[in-house]
Amino acid sequence: MWFSIAIVWALVMFIMMPLWHVYGKQNPSTETYKVTPADFQKDVDAFIAKYKVGEEKGVPVVAPPPGSDIYLLAKQWSWSPVLKLKKGVTYRLHLSSIDVLHGFSLYPLSINFMVIPDYEYVLTITPTQAGEYYVVCNEYCGLGHQQMVGKIIVE
Ligand SMILES: [Cu+2]
């Protein structure tokens, strides 16, 4: 009986996966591309050079134009750059790591994505609340893991 319950529950959860995607506003659609760490670093450097408006604790602060492609790079043990976004505007967020596996966790909201080297995730995002948000790494990535905190500012 327990075995049957487990099988049925596994099937229910399996069927729910696409339903959550469509109806639950969870598991957002992502575009994923293969990318080398060097190429991603190049794209991020160009993005920072174009839209840099300042610096915070040695990390560049970038204010991209509304609706543009924005980049966030994870590496041991930082997120770069600090993103300054506008509320109610849709952006295409490109996310990747240039070394090991990291986890993007937007605090205090509960929004989580894996950040995997060699893959560039493109997420379509629309910030709905103004404020300062922290990007915490939620995938243990080495000695400095607990200091790996980035920032997104929504105005
Ligand atoms: Cu990390």
Task: Outline the secondary-structure elements.
Elements lengths: L1 H22 L7 E4 L2 H15 E5 L2 E4 L6 E7 L2 E3 L1 E4 L5 E7 L4 E6 L3 E5 L3 E7 L5 E7 L11 E6 L1
Parallel strand pairs: 3-6, 4-7, 6-12
Antiparallel strand pairs: 1-10, 2-3, 4-5, 7-10, 8-9, 8-11, 11-12
The structure holds copper (II) ion.
Copper (II) ion binds next to loops.
CATH architecture: Sandwich
Name the CATH superfamily classification.
Answer: Cupredoxins -  blue copper proteins
Q: What is the residue-averaged pLDDT? A: 93
Shape by Cα distribution? globular
What proportion of the residues form beta strands (DSSP E)? 35-45%
Tell me the series of helices and strands, N- to C-terminal: HEHEEEEEEEEEEE
* Biggest sheet architecture: 7 strands, mixed
Q: What is the C-alpha radius of gyration, as a whole number of Å? A: 17 Å
The separation of the N and C termini measures: 55 Å
Strand order of the largest sheet: 2-3-6-12-11-8-9
Q: What bound compounds does this protein have?
A: copper (II) ion
Number of domains: 1
Task: Describe what you observe in this structure.
- It is a single chain.
- By secondary structure, the protein is an alpha+beta fold.
- The chain has a single domain, classed as Immunoglobulin-like.
- It is built from 2 helices and 12 strands; from the N terminus they run H-E-H-E-E-E-E-E-E-E-E-E-E-E.
- It has a 7-stranded mixed beta sheet with strand order 2-3-6-12-11-8-9.
- A hairpin with a 3-residue loop joins strand 8 (102-107) and strand 9.
- The longest helix is centred in the first third of the chain and has 22 residues, at 2-23.
- The model has no long low-confidence stretch (mean pLDDT 93).
- Residues 102, 137, 139, 141, 145, 148 line the site of copper (II) ion.
